Amino acid sequence: MTVHIGAAPGQIAETVLMPGDPYRAKWAAETFLDGAELVNEVRGMLGFTGTWKGNPVTIQGSGMGMPSLSIYANELISSYNAQTLIRIGSCGGMQPHVDIRDVIIAMSATTITSPSSGIFKEVNFAPTADWSLLRAAVTAAETKGGKTHVGGIYSSDVFYAERPDLDEQMVRHGILGVEMEAAELYTLAARHGRRALAVLTVSDHLQTGEALPSADRERTFGDMVEIALEAAFA
Ligand code: HPA
C-alpha cells in the first residue's frame, strides 16, 4: 500500500496502462483483460489487474494533469516495481492533417513546466518515449490500419488555455496534438530506467473546433488500448 494506491504488494503488474479517467480504466479492464479485479479505489482512482493473452496487466487511472499522473506513476514505479507504463488517453489535434479519431503515438512531449522541471534548472530536458515501445506501437497501429501519426505532442498544464500565441508556435513546430500528462510520465520513466509511451486518440481539434461525439468514443478508444497492449508485449 502507498499513500494513494491501496493495492497489496504483488497486486500490481509490471505492465501498467494509465488512462486519465478512472472509469475508462474500468471499461478497458472489463473489455480487454481476463479476470480483471479491482486493486485500487483510493480517492476513486480505480485500478484493475488482470491478464491479456496470459500476460499480467494493470490498468490504473492517472487523473488529469501532470501533478496527478506524477503521484500515481511515482508510486507505481517506486513501490510496485512497474517497468512499462503506457498512457492511453485523448488529445486535441493541432495540425490540419490530424483528424478526429486518428491515433497519435507520441515520440516526444514538449512542456512549459512539469512537476519535474525544478530539477533541471536551466536545462530544457526533452521527454522522449521508449524506442522499443514506440516501434512496437507503430507496427501494431499499422497492422490495425487506422490513421496513425507519430511525432511530438505538447503536454499542457491547462485545458482552458489563454495563450493562443503558444498554440500557434506548437502548430508551427509540427506538434501533432495537446494533452496534459505524457511529459511527466516520460521524464519519470527516464529517471528510473523504465519504459514509457503515450498512445492517444484525437478527441477534439483546436483548429476546427470539432469534437468526438461521446457515442463514438468507445470504439476509437478501443483501438488505442489494443495498440498499447500489443506494444507492451511485442
Ligand atoms: N487540451 C488539453 N488536453 C486535452 C485536449 C485539449 O484540447 N483534448 C484532450 N485532452
TrEMBL record:
Top-level division of the source organism's lineage: Bacteria
TM annotation in the entry: none
EC numbers for this chain: 2.4.2.1
CDD domains, per the entry: PNP_EcPNPI-like
InterPro entries listed in its UniProt record: DeoD-type, Nucleoside_phosphorylase_CS, Nucleoside_phosphorylase_d, Nucleoside_phosphorylase_sf
Active-site residues from the entry: 204
The family this protein is said to belong to: Belongs to the PNP/UDP phosphorylase family.
Function in brief: Catalyzes the reversible phosphorolytic breakdown of the N-glycosidic bond in the beta-(deoxy)ribonucleoside molecules, with the formation of the corresponding free purine bases and pentose-1-phosphate.
Organism: Sulfitobacter sediminilitoris
Site (Important for catalytic activity): 217
Catalytic activities: uridine + phosphate = alpha-D-ribose 1-phosphate + uracil; a purine D-ribonucleoside + phosphate = a purine nucleobase + alpha-D-ribose 1-phosphate; a purine 2'-deoxy-D-ribonucleoside + phosphate = a purine nucleobase + 2-deoxy-alpha-D-ribose 1-phosphate
Biological process annotations from GO: purine nucleoside catabolic process
One of the Pfam families matching this protein, by short name: PNP_UDP_1
Residues of the signal peptide: none
Stretches assigned to the Nucleoside phosphorylase domain: 16-225
Alphabetic keyword roster: Glycosyltransferase, Transferase
Cross-referenced NCBIfam families: deoD, PRK05819.1
Subunit and partners: Homohexamer; trimer of homodimers.
Top-tier EC class: transferase
One example GO MF annotation: uridine phosphorylase activity
Residues given in the record as a purine D-ribonucleoside binding sites: 4, 179-181, 203-204
Name the record gives this protein: Purine nucleoside phosphorylase DeoD-type
Gene3D superfamilies assigned: Nucleoside phosphorylase domain
Gene Ontology CC, one term: cytosol
